[in-house]
């Protein structure tokens, strides 16, 4: 029978993750045994707040959040329910819900000055993720274990995601709650057989081979994590030495320099360039990356589009990487301290009411030439010009910051690239 987990062990794990003693902690909780155990033990050693998200996907979810809130009140723990508003997806529901969940919790943490968000991912989760990604044909990067700490997506580095229970079997978390005679909530989706993770969980409960135990699979994932960290070290080194980043959101590099590193580094560097130029969290599939790198090394390379990003040949055998126009975010109201296309942070002052930001576009380019004919001298390829962020007042262009032209209220707006850890830390 599994032994209980202690608050002292949680404290030791938090110390190992670099969480300062006395720092306030937010803990993502669903009311299940994993997160509930983490909240209770962490509350014995730190000032914690419990965050739960009502995704609005099940009619019972609101009542379950209420039950969790009542339990937290009984334990004297601060509790907040966050609600996923708006239209819900009809496909890829679990993935989209995860993205929404982290966005809501990140926004709450930033608004309340909390720098550490804890989740209760544990040893069994590591094993399940390894098998799921193995089934999808993932390489080293996908098979590597979850990191104990990472940046919360969309936080700009201000909120750190901490997973202190990665070495702890789920059985110990359940045993801890049973010893305290505490009940937990069960999410019905955890038993819904249409989800792949549920199938993998059932597989691990009765594996066909002795070695396919959760602890051994988690150990394998940890070793692969070390391999991934080594690859990222050399990838970052190549990126820093060979890729020029520009304030207008473009990159420039010489694909001949791919020959100086193993193919895996070239592939991963290309994936990182896609992520940086698109502002997206994920990267293209490996087979698409392989085709792209091969194409860029061929003589007569004429360009390609990958993951909403264009790779365009420019003089001296180099390639310019830019956002694809049709993939960029459309127009949106111009609001100070917001982000456009998940790439540019907006800084605005004065009277900006009614102004919008969006890509320049071909029609916009034609109009801008009439006002500022000097922009024709820009060395940017045309495909990169038409995707530049532009400030509009109705149909009138009032500023194209990266071409250094503005008029009227456009003079009160500036843009800066959002941080995307380039190269990744």
Automatic annotation (TrEMBL):
GO terms for molecular function: tRNA(Ile)-lysidine synthase activity. It catalyses: cytidine(34) in tRNA(Ile2) + L-lysine + ATP = lysidine(34) in tRNA(Ile2) + AMP + diphosphate + H(+). The keyword Nucleotide-binding applies. It comes from the Bacteria. ATP binds at residues 30-35. Residues 26-202 form the tRNA(Ile)-lysidine/2-thiocytidine synthase N-terminal domain. Keywords: ATP-binding, Cytoplasm, Ligase, Nucleotide-binding, tRNA processing. Its EC number is 6.3.4.19. It is found in: Cytoplasm. It is an enzyme of class 6 (ligase). It holds the Pfam family ATP_bind_3. Belongs to the tRNA(Ile)-lysidine synthase family. The N-terminal region contains the highly conserved SGGXDS motif, predicted to be a P-loop motif involved in ATP binding. NCBIfam families: lysidine_TilS_N (TIGR02432). Ligates lysine onto the cytidine present at position 34 of the AUA codon-specific tRNA(Ile) that contains the anticodon CAU, in an ATP-dependent manner. Cytidine is converted to lysidine, thus changing the amino acid specificity of the tRNA from methionine to isoleucine. This is tRNA(Ile)-lysidine synthase. It comes from Kordiimonas lipolytica.
